[in-house]
Design a protein that fits this description.
With 310 residues, the chain is an alpha/beta fold. The chain has two domains: 198 residues, Spore Coat Polysaccharide Biosynthesis Protein SpsA, Chain A (Alpha-Beta Complex), CATH 3.90.550.10; 85 residues, no CATH class. Helices cover 41% and strands 18% of the residues. The chain has twelve helices and nine strands. Strands 1, 2, 3, 4, 5, 6, 7, 8 and 9 form a nine-stranded mixed beta sheet that branches. A hairpin with a 5-residue loop joins β6 and β7. α9 runs antiparallel to α11. GO terms for molecular function: hexosyltransferase activity.
């Protein structure tokens, strides 16, 4: 292995001792060995730090960092990415299990793309298959139309292998938004994304998952929460518009203005019309019938004055 590993694996941990060893063992079992693990612990109060040190003591490819104060999920990954020096960066959760050829297949596939991702199988806390893949829930996208990631995301953080050049383009992460969706958007905006049609990770589902992909944590939303969601969507679209270029930028600037108009109104039909006109990219990830997509769009047009009545 050279002094600088070809692939830096950004691993963020926080109170993850229960599943961490299985994840680390699957990294060590990779069929290529030119990698390093940049592990950043976010102030764990269990034995996570001790587990990391056990592995670092016998394998010099593990480089450990510990935050003095908790940075949170996005902040910790941002720090980890800044510490990565490899030509490529793989993002790693603390509770999954990698296929032995994950890095090899992704390295072979990335080509001229800035980011490549893959399919994953969902497993339960005990490691048993849930007979469900991410591709069962979303259509996968390859290409350079960033608006595909405006409303939906099929790129899970744990599935990402990206070129180090993407870090400078994507950081800092917008506050209070999913970092993996942002990385996919920026990669498609400034280059292209691709995917490997293989299941390369067993994606563990348990009560402490940050992303609720199975929508198990449903709760009644208050009026204030509904209004906050409208505002959050408008801010997100505006952030994406700033990063986009060309025709994508023109579309997103228009959507940003219409979402703001919706937020001040009872409803904004023009917002829905534009989404429908560009549904083949904007809703390309939505694995639903045209009728379901229409209902999805109709729900988007209702503004703050309508939400206050519901």
């Amino acid at each position: 292995m050279t002094d600088t590993a070809k692939i830096s694996i950004a691993l963020c941990t926080y109170n993850g001792e229960q599943f961490l060893r299985a994840q680390l063992d699957s990294i060590i079992a990779q069929s290529i060995d030119s990698w390093e693990v940049i592990a950043v612990d976010d102030g764990s109060t269990d034995h996570t730090w001790e587990v990391l040190n056990d592995y670092a003591a016998v394998d010099g490819r593990f480089k450990l960092f510990r935050n003095e104060k908790n940075l949170g999920y996005n902040g910790n990954f941002q720090k980890a990415l800044n510490l990565c020096e490899g030509e490529y960066i793989a993002i790693c959760d603390q509770d999954d299990v990698w296929h032995p050829d994950k890095l090899k297949f992704q390295l072979d596939a990335i080509g001229n793309s800035l980011l490549v991702y893959h399919d994953s199988e969902l497993i339960d806390a005990a490691g048993s298959s849930m007979n469900l893949k991410i591709s069962d829930k979303f259509n996968f996208y390859r290409g350079s139309s960033p608006e595909a990631f405006l409303y939906l995301n099929c790129v899970s953080g744990h599935s990402i292998l990206m070129k180090n050049d993407l870090v400078a383009k994507a950081l800092p992460f917008p506050s209070n938004f999913h970092y993996d969706q942002w990385l996919a958007f920026v990669a498609a905006s400034t280059g292209s994304v691709d995917f490997v049609e293989r299941v390369l990770v067993q994606y563990r589902q348990h009560q402490h998952n940050t992303t609720d992909i199975l929508a198990r944590r449903k709760s009644a939303r208050s009026r204030d929460m509904k209004l906050a969601e409208l505002e959050r969507e408008a801010i997100w679209i505006a952030k994406c518009a700033e990063k986009a270029t060309g025709n994508s930028r023109q579309l997103l600037v228009r959507l940003a203005a219409l979402s703001e108009s919706r937020n001040r109104s009872f409803a904004e039909p023009r917002y829905g019309i534009v989404i429908w006109q560009h549904r083949h990219t904007l809703l390309s990830l939505l694995k639903k019938s045209p009728v379901s997509k229409l209902f999805y769009i109709v729900r988007k047009i209702w503004g703050s004055k309508a939400k206050k009545l519901l």
